[in-house]
Design brief:
Blueprint lengths: L9 E8 L4 E6 L3 E4 L7 H4 L10 H30 L3 H15 L4 H16 L3
Parallel strand pairs: 1-3
Antiparallel strand pairs: 1-2
Amino acid sequence: MKANIHPQWHHDTVVTCSCGNTFTTGSTLEAIQVDICSNCHPFFTGEMKFVDRQGRVDKFMAKVKQAQKRQDDVRKKVAKKQAAQAKSYKQILQEQKATVQQEQPNSPTDTKADDQSAAAAKTSPN
């Protein structure tokens, strides 16, 4: 073996758990901090314990809420668009008639021609 390439070995490394349990082991580190040990792990204790490191569950739940909000917004937009498109044929014709009337202002000669054609249509035997 080569000299001076291996890390320093500590025979009395203290392992401290977040539950307060401590024990001694050998390691290259002088002290070790752990979140779960055999004293508090659900497998060994038989209790159900929820462990959330770094807020992962909260982040996930926030993403789920955002996704649901976006889906609701999209559904509202689609429903609004469909409601706007759901017009009867009569409504569509009335809108087109109104736009045509706005585009073509009536002049006095147009009204006389319209009156004459209406009178001719009434007298025709069809």
